[in-house]
Amino acid sequence: MVTTDDVRNLALSLPETEQMEHWGKPSFRVRNKIFAVIQPDGKSLVIKTTQDDRLAYTMMDPDVYRVPDSFNNLAFMVIRLDRVAFEECHNLIIQAWRLVTPKKVVKAYNEVSGRSQTDGDR
């Protein structure tokens, strides 16, 4: 099980990430671009993704990944923190961060962390 503290610790460890309120919920952003929002239930995380990955994840495991009707035109999905594997969630948070972060910052992070651009991608 992944906790909200796990999410917060990982998100804030990524370069240039800031935590800010978004409609009363903690969101994680880079240069004011949201990549993750912890939901009030403490068991769900809204996360930035691509439309293709969102479709793949929600079809692969709808008990863990879902898209509310209000998100149909947004590249975000909801992850059940109480059902997702820790490593999977970790990788998805990093992928989401990469989607909103300037390429030179991502490149520097990859070099320091030993990760490649595709680490964590399915």
Give a written overview of the molecule:
- A hairpin with a 2-residue loop joins strand 1 (17-22) and strand 2.
- Helix content is 38%, strand content 25%.
- The protein has one domain (4-113): Aspartate Aminotransferase, domain 1.
- The longest helix has 15 residues, at 86-100.
- It contains 4 helices and 6 strands.
- It is an alpha+beta fold.
- It has a 6-stranded antiparallel β-sheet, with helices on one face.
Helix proportion = 25-40%
**Subunit organisation of the chains:** single chain
Rounded average pLDDT: 93
What is the chain-wise order of helices and strands? HEEEEHEEHH
* Biggest sheet record: 6 strands, antiparallel
What's the CATH first level?
Alpha Beta
**Which fold name is given in CATH as the topology?**
Aspartate Aminotransferase, domain 1
Kindly, what is the distance between the CA atoms of the first and last residues, rounded to a whole number of angstroms? 20 Å
Shape: globular
Report the β-strand fraction as a percent range.
15-25%
Low-confidence stretches: none
How are strands sequenced across the largest beta sheet? Answer: 1-2-3-4-6-5
State the total count of DSSP E strands: 6
Report the CATH architecture. Alpha-Beta Complex
Computed Rg:
13 Å
